[in-house]
């Protein structure tokens, strides 16, 4: 993957052809417009077709959809939108009424089929309802008003009591507030609830029938968005009497198509290379296989046009970090299975397909790493071929620390080397190269002192690499031009400030220790749940089976969720913060093509 090279294009044409030319550019769909005026578009132009979008969103959330109608001539979109929004409004009203009825039925059911007599039949007396905990029943002996126990709920330890009084009793009559039962009997409430359920089913059926218009509604929304963007583009052109100017960024690969468009439409065009003062947008070339790395990183940051695309590195490093944090074969397999179950929704877009491929690779790396450490739902294979391939001991703290630090140093060295390559025509390239030497030298010293590498790495090679790297950082980080002794002094101070960042480098490398810590915690938690389940199983020959099953199910579901969350959050954090901090100096903004969305 790479960042596509862009050209700045300026088009000149007669004013009467402005609308036609902009429509053609929108159909071509490869131009990122540069506003030439500060005049904003009218508010009505920027408004999105809210009602049509709302109707489409309501239908797209339906569980099932009908065969799509694609003939635009047989539908009045405004009528369809009104029908859909009426269905949405009615569904919500009936659903709210159903929920209230369900609540009323739950409140009234313990009292049974209750019909209130006329007040005249009770000589002006009224019934007041209370639900008392059995522990508060003694409070009834202290009241002077007549009362009657109607029912008891032995499971919830509740008593249902009616107090008879002409006026509403005082709030402190009993230790609980009175219940509001209402005058509608239980049978009528249940009938109304059944009616609302049937009406709700009819509305759901109507909604499903309306899903046949999804495609046409989507086209209507796209057409209105196209019209809004076209109107906004017209307001950003520069008009000079009888001529107009349109300016934008276009990929070099589309230059021939743009030249052909200009010849066909009778407009002049000037193509220019980006200058140092220009800030072009970033257009990433994403491959179907590994493009998910750029998509994942794109949620947080877009690389600068003059930088490099770290998507390939993120694809592999994020997958490795995720697998090490999961640290279990079955957890990683379940993650891949979940992605496979949602493959239909993910394949609906190119970005979704790329992210699906990334998720599959993350699952595969997790399975391989889990097999290497021998963890299957927190249990070891206990012999056989699976046990023979489990050669990594997760409890060997020294080895795992060294592996985590090695991965971190390698990750940051790659970032610095790529930054040096991008700036290879400038002396500044020696600064990131120097940081790569400093990090590699520091790792060599540590591994040499611990006996992992020969002592020569600790005594000779490591210090030499750090010395040379530190000199590169001191001398070439600053791009300040030296014209006087003062400039030389300031450049020296810039170099010292840059060398002081070695503390930041040390902290960033240690951040990769979280790979070992999170992987160990997840594996330990899985083993703990297994141990608790075995203890419950051995404690009772009958009920112990039930409790053991519940512990295993709930425990591993919780641990699985925590591992996924940790793998995604911390795996991406190491790429977005540590890696990007050393690999990308400036943030860019994405290329936004002025294109038609309607088919």
TrEMBL record:
Membrane topology note: Multi-pass membrane protein
UniProt keywords, alphabetically: Ion transport, Membrane, Transmembrane, Transmembrane helix, Transport
InterPro entries referenced in this protein's UniProt entry, alphabetically: V-ATPase_116kDa_su
Transmembrane residue ranges: 313-343, 355-379, 399-421, 428-448, 460-477, 498-522, 542-564
Broad class of the protein's primary localization: membrane
Subcellular location(s) of the protein: Membrane
PANTHER family given in the database record: V-TYPE PROTON ATPASE SUBUNIT A (PTHR11629:SF63), VACUOLAR PROTON ATPASES (PTHR11629)
Protein family: Belongs to the V-ATPase 116 kDa subunit family.
Protein name, as recorded: V/A-type H+-transporting ATPase subunit I
